[in-house]
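Translate sequence into structure tokens.
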Amino acid sequence: MANRRWFRVLVFFILFFLLVLLISKTTFIFFPIIQLIGAVAFPIIGAGILYYLSKPVMHFFEKYKVPRILAIILVFLLILALGYLFVMFIWPIVRDQVMNLVNSIPSMVTMIEDFIDYWQANYTNIPDQVLSAINNFTDNLPTRIENLLNNLFGFISGFIGHVISFVASIVLIPFFLFFMLKDGDKLVPFITQVFSEKKAENIRSLLGKIDGVLSSFIQGQLIVSFVVGILLLIGYLIIDLEYALALSLFGMLTNVIPYLGPFIAVIPALLVGVFQDPMNLVWISIIMLAAQQLEGNLISPNVMGQALNLHPLTIITVILAAGSIAGFIGILFAVPFYAVLRTIIVHFYHTYVRSKKKKEDALI
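Result follows.
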């Protein structure tokens, strides 16, 4: 019986769940470790994102015989220059537009109430059930709009909160980033030095695949988000939409969430556009559709390629599941985490298939 496949699978799952049960009963042992990891996780993740964005720039400098330390210094200066340009020229405009948008919310609510009152006064041949539903909706309209805006701005505030945490970790991020750029190439040899040559080669192959997946996702998704934000800004400026820069920047930020991000981005633009001119509903929809068609058919395939090779339905399912488990942080990191996990499983499966085939060939 011990040689039967189903028995080995059953034993594996029993041992796995026993291990999970043991860990759940001894969480007090792992709690200090989890706290330590949580304290440095955000700076490491932030530095890791910057690492994958700045590594091509460093290699570009090194291609022209620039020493690595000097190339890293040039990368840091470039990051500081971009941050300075954003703070000096873009942030003041975005801040003013957001403040003006917040201040205009009461007038938007008043416009909605006036429109409903006018409609009720001029259309008397309406069934009582419909009038009752309209009156109920009108009475609860301020509360509904307030809840909607609270959820929307709560989402934005949550994102801003994470940005503030990122800024608070700014002291650690440059140190992590510096050593990642300086010694990143030494990580794989350090890990594989304790293994035999055959296993070391297998691990090098796996780590190379993981590095390629993370690089493709981080670089590709941020480049795609930036291009989509520029396209939205151009479209909003063409139709003379108010708060165009703030809305396009919001669209750029939310577009880092694959597939769901564009739908989140269009909500505030539609709300603002309909109060400015009802025809903006059509124009904004056309702009978003055009931007997404360009992104989906031209930009993403050329920037990200087929490195992730994930079905859209799989991505949406993973994002929704991660969001329900870990909130906004889960939504942000669901796709790269799933892509890395999938890469590991596929790699070991292929390794198992190859080793099994070699054994069968040897027996023949």
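Note: The chain has a mean pLDDT of 79.
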